[in-house]
Specification:
6 strands; alpha/beta; about 40% helix; about 15% strand; Rossmann fold; single chain; globular
Length: about 190
C-alpha cells in the first residue's frame, strides 16, 4: 500500500419509502419521487469528478440511486453485497461509533466488528480497483458510518451528524491512511 492513492466519493442512498413511512415491514423499499430527485441532484454534483464506476449495495434503494447517477454520468454499476446496511438500534450504533465497542450486536445479529470488517473490505476492494480514477460508492447510513469510523479513527466526531440522503462526500486513502470529509461537518456544494 505504500504510496497508493485512492479517491472514493461516498454517499448514502437517496430517500426511500421506508425512510418516509417508517414501516418496518418493507424489506427492500424503493426510492420516493423526492429520492429520485435527490439522486439526480447528486449526479449533477458529481458531473466533474471523472469517476470510473459506481458501486452500490444490493438493496433496491442503493441500486436505484446508483442507476440514476450512472445513467446521468454514463458509468457502469457494480453491485457489492458487502456494502449492505445493518439492522441495529441507535444505542448499538452509538456503542460502535462513540464508544468503539464493536462487540455490541445489532438486531440483525451482526456485531460492529463484523459490519466494519465487511464494509472496510469492500471499500479497500473498490480503492484497489479504482486507482486511476475516482469511484462513487452508494451505501447506507449505519454501515458506512461504522466502516468509516474504523478506517479514519474519527468515530465520536461523526456521532450526532448522520449522513443525509444523497449528499456526496470524499473518502481518500494515501498509502495505508484513510481520510474522510464528513458531509454534515461541512457545507454541501451547491448544484
Amino acid at each position: 500500500m505504500g504510496t497508493e492513492f485512492a479517491h472514493l466519493i461516498c454517499l448514502r442512498h437517496a430517500e426511500a419509502e421506508r425512510t418516509t413511512t417508517q414501516l418496518a415491514g418493507l424489506p427492500d423499499p424503493s426510492l420516493t419521487a423526492q429520492g429520485r430527485d435527490q439522486a439526480a441532484a447528486a449526479a449533477s454534483r458529481l458531473r466533474h469528478e471523472q469517476a470510473g464506476t459506481v458501486y452500490a449495495s444490493s438493496a433496491a434503494r442503493s441500486r436505484q440511486t446508483a442507476a440514476i447517477i450512472a445513467e446521468t454520468l454514463g458509468l457502469q454499476i457494480v453491485v457489492l453485497p458487502a456494502l449492505s446496511e445493518v439492522a441495529c438500534s441507535a444505542q448499538v450504533l452509538e456503542d460502535w461509533i462513540v464508544h468503539g465497542d464493536l462487540s455490541a450486536r445489532g438486531a440483525g445479529g451482526e456485531t460492529g466488528r463484523a459490519v466494519a470488517s465487511r464494509v472496510t473490505a469492500a471499500l479497500a476492494e473498490i480503492a484497489a480497483a479504482s486507482a486511476d480514477q475516482p469511484a462513487i460508492v452508494v451505501g447506507h447510513v449505519a454501515s458506512l458510518t461504522t466502516a468509516i469510523s474504523v478506517l479514519c479513527g474519527n468515530g465520536p466526531s461523526l456521532w450526532g451528524t448522520p449522513l443525509q440522503h444523497a449528499i456526496p462526500f470524499p473518502l481518500t486513502r494515501k498509502g495505508a491512511r484513510w481520510h474522510v470529509q464528513w458531509p454534515t461537518l461541512t457545507k454541501p456544494q451547491t448544484v
